[in-house]
Amino acid sequence: MLDTYTREHVGRFSLTPPITIDRRASLRDAARSLFQNDVALLLVTDDDQPAGVVTERDLVAALANGIDPDETIVGYAMTGNIVAAQPWDTVLDAATQMIDLHTRHLLVRDGGRYIGVLSVRDLFLPVLLQALGMHPSDED
To answer: Mean pLDDT, the chain, as a whole number?
Structure first.
């Protein structure tokens, strides 16, 4: 099973393309976008350029601190330092980055373009299926 982590590359996963939101949008708009798109991370843009990320956890933290989601912009709650994996990174490298960053999602960047979002679930599912003697196509 460890071979899955040391030999497989992030680029082999069916990555979910990142959903974007403008940094001037409200936190309520961000929550709505997360919910409607069934994702946990949004790529925040400023004038159509990547500026950061905002996650479900960022929104929960803002609400827990009494922030008004209608009056507060995404830029307030976002993380401005975008850390990303590369398609050729191993699964182990990506998992290690997630552990180091205390995050459950990692953007994947190919050159200057963000091509997807990798989640802990993406990393865990193949290992679980292998342990159960199943193949990814058996999960449905």
So the answer is: 88
